[in-house]
Write a structure and sequence with these properties.
alpha+beta, elongated, 58% helix, 110 residues, Arc Repressor Mutant, subunit A
Length: 110
Amino acid sequence: MDKTAALAALSALGQDTRLEVFRLLVRVGSDGLAAGEIAERLGAVQNTMSNHLKVLDHAGLVRAERDGRSIRYVADMTGFRDLLAFLMEDCCNGRPELCRPVIDAIACAC
């Protein structure tokens, strides 16, 4: 990931609703949710939600997957991993033991 892509991702997550959308999609996992269901769960207007999802999609943090006649949105964990890797690529200045608490905190047991 380059600096421009990282800034787009951080900017997308820097808005309250989009952060909540991303966290919700991370919680539901690979099944994802339709835009209408995301809006309903978060108490948002559906057309506004479509705009938020578009921003997250362009930032590489969610992806749209066709499910019959509907579209489901899924957290793009590769995009998220790339963002975390970009943020930590210069971490620790040759002392990886300093990064271990961060890595342990973000590691999932799923």
